[in-house]
Amino acid sequence: MRSHTAAVVVLLGLGTSLAWTDEGMIRGVWTAKRSEWRVEGGETAVFVNMRIERLTPHGQWSMSETLPVDAFPGLPGADIGKPHADVRFQWVRDPGSFTFEGSFEAGEGAGHFTFQRNAEYVSEMGKLGYSGIDDEKAMNLAVHDVSRAFIHELEALGYAKVPLEGLLALRIHGADPEYIRGLKALGYDHVSVEDLVALRIHGATLDFVKGMGELGFNHIPTEELVTFRIHGVDAAFVKGLRACGLPATSPEELVTFRIHGVSPEFVKDLKGLGYANLPSSDLVNFRIHGVSPEFVRDLQGLGYAHPRPDELVAMRIHGVSADFVKELKGIGYQGIPVDDLVSFRIHGVTAAFIQKLQQRDGKAPSPDHVVDAKIHDGAR
């Protein structure tokens, strides 16, 4: 008779089920769905999206993975699409084996599973320095396919004695030996486990690393590759900037461009308005303060053909808008120097205030007189 060390009730749409751990065996429930994918060569292959779920002393645990039907020995791919099929099949991995029992109806299945750890695996892992692999750890290692072959292959690549947590992280995020060899071929030899995982988490594929290297960003620190991915700096972005005449920029500048929205389209639009070959700092300042091509275009339409970059930024900082300039133009103040426009805004000079001065003095005051009046008497 089996001794159950833990027993709990779980409701999973399968009726009331028990999930418990026997000595050397874990139990739970599974659901699955059949699908057909087009694979290399144009053929269609049957895949199964398998979800397994159980309760642990720490709460509910689940995982899902889509695999070819032949990854599950005993599961008849042709039968699981039928109206009804009782099934019993396995999922065998080096740390242990899952045995599934249940049924499929029109491509959707459910039932119960047991997991049995591989005693030989546990014993040899102990010899490799990985002691204390219980049922729970063995199941986690099996789900993520941390096999002895995987560990030996890592050792051959210079990654000996990687902690279990590191092995799992490499597997979970796809930093496999093929990826490691690919990085080495691109000049990144013996990248740390932490950096390998970070690269994969953020999508730094071998094609991405190669593409950036071809643009002159080869052998840059892996942290910068990760930062590129986080902020969307890719080969297309760099090529777009260079096509606009922007010279090669540093990784830091490229990231700053992406953070603040300095895109190839932005650079191209400014170039068309007469602002070509601007320093990177001016481009970033434009984006920070809202100096857009539309803003420049509106000012040009009001007679300000080519304000200096610092003048454009000052106008945006102090709220010199196209509408403000239009209001001044409407009361006879056309072509006022940018410095005076900025001074007006700093001191709160409005078109209405100037009109009061005109009515009081019977003439159009100079910009300096307007500011002085605002500071000292407020147009009493």
Highlighted features:
3 domains; 8-stranded antiparallel β-sheet; 380 residues; alpha+beta; 18 helices
Written description of the protein model:
By secondary structure, the protein is of the alpha+beta class. The chain folds into three domains: 1-143, no CATH class; 232-315, no CATH class; 318-380, no CATH class. The protein is 44% helix and 21% strand. The protein has 18 helices and eight strands. It has helices at 119-127, 135-143, 148-156, 164-173, 177-185, 193-201, 206-214, 222-231, 235-243, 251-260, 264-272, 280-289, 293-301, 309-317, 322-330, 338-346, 351-361, 367-376; strands spanning 7-11, 16-22, 25-38, 44-56, 59-68, 85-93, 96-105, 108-117. Strands 1, 2, 3, 4, 5, 6, 7 and 8 form an eight-stranded antiparallel sheet that branches. Strand 2 and strand 3 (25-38) form a beta hairpin. The longest helix is centred in the last third of the chain and has 11 residues, at 351-361. 24% of the residues are buried. Residues 1-20 have low confidence and may be disordered.
**How are helices and strands ordered from N to C?**
EEEEEEEEHHHHHHHHHHHHHHHHHH
> What percentage of the residues does DSSP assign to strands (E)?
15-25%
Largest sheet: 8 strands, antiparallel
Helix content: 40-55%
The total beta strand count reads 8
Instruction: Count the DSSP helices.
Output: 18
* Number of separate structural domains: 3
